[in-house]
Amino acid sequence: MKKTINMKKSLNITIALVAAFSLFSCFNDKKPNYQFMPNMYEPVGYETYGEYDVFENEQEAKLPAEGSIPRGWTPYEYDNTTEGLNLAKAESKNPLEITEDNISEGEALYTIYCAVCHGDKGDGQGILAEREKFLGIPSYADPGREITMGGIYHVEMYGLNAMGSYASQTNEKERWQIAMHVMDLKAALNGEPSLLETVGAKAVDSSNTETSQVEQNETDTEGEDVSEASENETN
Ligand code: HEC
């Protein structure tokens, strides 16, 4: 009697072991296994690079819609033409504040990207000019080229003939910082005051106009040229 119980018990254990083993042997860690609730794993939407019949070429990945603008990128409205350059020279304005930081940042970038051709002083005597690898590199002081902040930014965007574009190596802020340094080089070549000096002079100027404004306002309550004073400040 006792023996049969033992027999039954060991049979049960064997069955349990065989069952456990055969279930476990199905487990393959190289492959995904049973999914009891597939919606937990498989997205209901389309996979980014998936293949689906409903799409053209069966590709989920699509080109951005025409006119899309990447995040953080500002459209540049001037064309890559001579008219575009002239327009940029005339009206495109530097949006950054003129600060020592911006200018020294611009100088460092200028040394990396531009000095090989244009020279550290901007006189067109960079090492590649000296070795005659590139010809026709102008001095920024060349009176025949009306070099303005907007014009510099424009040629950084598109390049100009032998000069390549720097739009992919630099971002918008960096291009304006470089443009500031180029304006300083031009000023130094022409013996004119630097940007910071001009800004400093303007600040003194506008504080002068402000005091005279106050004096004026005391007698003339209209205060018509307040707008003029604020214009001076922003310049
Ligand atoms: C490979 C040499 C080379 C490099 C590097 C280079 N330039 Fe030039 N750059 C030129 C040449 C050549 C011209 C004259 C193009 C022309 O008028 O045909 C020029 C012209 C210019 C002009 C005058 C544009 C005008 O209005 O006439 C500016 C401003 C200028 N470069 C700025 C820069 C700045 C800023 C950098 C760096 C981001 C730079 N360049 C890098 C070769 C170079």
Question: What does the model show?
Answer:
This protein is mainly α. Among the domains are: 82-192, Cytochrome c-like domain (Cytochrome Bc1 Complex, Chain D, domain 2); 196-234, no CATH class. 50% of the residues lie in helices and 0% in strands. It has nine helices and no strands. The protein has helices at 2-25, 82-91, 100-113, 115-118, 127-130, 149-158, 172-189, 195-219, 226-234. Helix 2 runs antiparallel to helix 6. Heme C is lined by residues 113-114, 116-118, 128, 134, 136-138, 145, 147, 151-152, 155-156, 160-163, 166, 178, 182.
CATH class of the domain at 82-192: Mainly Alpha
Radius of gyration: 35 Å
CATH homologous superfamily of the domain at 82-192 - what is it? Answer: Cytochrome c-like domain
Strand content: under 5%
Uncertain spans: 210-235
What's the end-to-end separation, in Å? 109 Å
User: Helicity, in percent?
Assistant: 40-55%
Order of helices and strands: HHHHHHHHH
Instruction: Briefly note the structural class of the backbone.
Output: mainly alpha
Bound molecules: heme C
Largest sheet: none
The overall pLDDT, averaged over residues, is: 83
**CATH-derived topology of the domain at 82-192:** Cytochrome Bc1 Complex, Chain D, domain 2
**Number of helical stretches of at least 4 residues:** 9
Task: Describe the global form.
Answer: elongated
CATH architecture title of the domain at 82-192 = Orthogonal Bundle
Q: Count the strands?
A: 0
